[in-house]
User: What shape does this take?
Amino acid sequence: MPDEAPSLLLLIPAYNEAERIGPVLREYAAHLRAHFQGRFRLLVVLNGCVDDTLEVVRRAAAEFPEIAWIDFPGRIGKGGALIEGLRRGGDMEWIGYVDADGATSPAAFAQLIEHLDEAECVIGSRWLPGSVLHVAQSGQRRFFSRAFHLLVEVLFRMGIKDTQCGAKVMRRRA
Assistant: This one.
């Protein structure tokens, strides 16, 4: 009997993303349907949204049953959204997350998945040669991102080029 393909939980924390999240969810769901061999679930964790993000997510979920959501009426922050998504996300073997703004394309996220046979956790990076930013960043944001990375590297010596990239995937056991 052949090995069963691994399952994937993709967490998408969202705060007031009504303008952007619809296409992001549809693109990810369509891409994963076409290219991912295992079962998958996109779990949007709404983090105190006061815009129409929930309604946009509901419409996308009507088209793609693999999309689910958890709605927190109060702000719990991105970290809190990820923790709650992990707690309630089920028993998928692989767990990933991406930002709701579409900064990481589905094809780029698929490249992260391809490296899970080499590591327990794969982290995207905007600063490696060949990286493409799908959402433009201001000069100020780039400056503070690089400054924060330098601080993290000096303090923790992790050897990770971009600790704050909003695209990561790992094995549940990690």
